[in-house]
Amino acid sequence: MDLNFTSDELAFRDEVRSFIEANIPAETRHKVLEGLEVSRDDTIRWQQILHRRGWGGPNWPKEFGGTGWDAVRQYIFEEESAAAGTPRLLPFGLKMVGPVIMRFGNAAQQKRFLPRILSGEDWWAQGYSEPGAGSDLASLKTRAERKDGHYVVNGQKTWITLAQHANWIFCLVRTDPAVKKQAGISFLLIDMKSPGVTVRPITLLDGSQEVNEVWFEDVQVPVGNLVGDENGGWTYAKFLLGHERTNIAGVGVSKRELARLKRIASEERKDGKPLMADPGFAAQVAQVEVELMALEITNLRVLAAEAERRAPGPEASLLKIKGTEIQQSISELMMHAAGPRALPSRRGATGDVPSFGPAYAAPLAATYLNLRKTSIYGGSNEIQKNIIAQTILGL
Asked: Which candidate, 239, 210, 246, 389, places its Cα nearest to that of 323?
């Protein structure tokens, strides 16, 4: 694989870099680069800016309003965006339900939902996990019974990221309890404003309310909001999970955070020597950097497969495992580098600075605590190792 960019790709990189530099709001950029909390408005504003430029769907084909960029250009865009400190583009619409609707939805669904994802009008949430049905997703119990042109949905979803902001949620629901558990699941699109939908926040270790419980009590969902075939949802779920695990790898963000780690560790301490001068610590940083380089190459291979309209295979599980482990390792090393100055555990939008440390130290503990979950969501890393063993090693 030739890892050098062509002259056209370098020109594209310069175009992306110039556009971001000229258009990213300074306040939003500061929040991202300092690890502070990014608001709903920050995220939507950036999506709208990109949409006006025609870049609202970096990973979408032109026929659905996307850029039509190849895998390399997608990679360049994500890397430049992360390095510059733009908000993360919401994956739930752009990288999860959007591709599912493109592949399995009907023309009416594509016309109705896809443009509103690109414009930022709709904020989607993912309704998969339930109490007792996380990594074993096929054990889900949320029911959807068909009655008079509607599905009546009852049940509970949990750990639903940013559901407090969402106006739509895509859900896996059980439509046939009498068959094998994977065979009786359907994929529904549910309006969060529907009567009977209740969102209850879950407070995390860092004090934030990023995830939620979502309850459905006799919620009526039009049959027209069923994606694909009834009881065919497991196929669509597997397709979506491949995209989710690829996205969780977070190569661009990890590269940005690795650079921040090096800056923090290069500051002089009381003894006059930076922590990076310690051979043991420097070796740990080097190990993470080597693993990140290997992850980057694997990610490019997966993107190339997606460009050929092939869904991510077991390599998506590799990306998920290593991507989340690297994110956690970098956050641990940052905590080590900052020492006791990283004790505060809130990531306020204002970035209140503790009296005993620099501004960058305030959100480090919150980031460390928040990233503990990455090796669990999207299918725990243990489950991903089972997938690799079965599909690649034949065990």
From this structure: 246
Q: What's at 287, amino acid-wise?
A: Q
| 141 burial via Cβ count (<10 Å: 0-12, 13-18, 19+) | middle
| Tens of pLDDT, residues 66-91 | 999 988 898 899 999 999 999 999 99
**Topology of domain 124-231, CATH:** Butyryl-CoA Dehydrogenase, subunit A; domain 2 (2.40.110)
What lies within 8 Å, CB to CB, of 354 at 6+ separation is 341, 343, 344, 361, 362
Q: Beta-strand (E) ranges in the chain?
A: 124-127, 143-147, 150-161, 168-174, 185-191, 197-202, 211-222, 226-227
Rounded to 5 degrees, φ, ψ at 151 are -100, 135
How many beta carbons lie within 10 A of that of residue 130, not counting itself? 20
Q: Alpha carbon 317 to chain centroid distance?
A: 14
**CATH class of the domain defined by 248-392:** mainly alpha
Percent of the chain whose predicted confidence (pLDDT) is above 90:
62
Contacts of 367 (CB under 8 A, 6+ apart): 35, 206, 331, 334, 347
Q: Is the pLDDT of residue 239 over 90?
A: no
Tell me the β-bridge partners of 153.
Answer: 144, 219
Q: How confident is the model at residue 127 (pLDDT cuts 50, 70, 90)?
A: very high
The Cβ-side half-sphere exposure at 9, using a 13 Å CA radius, reads 15
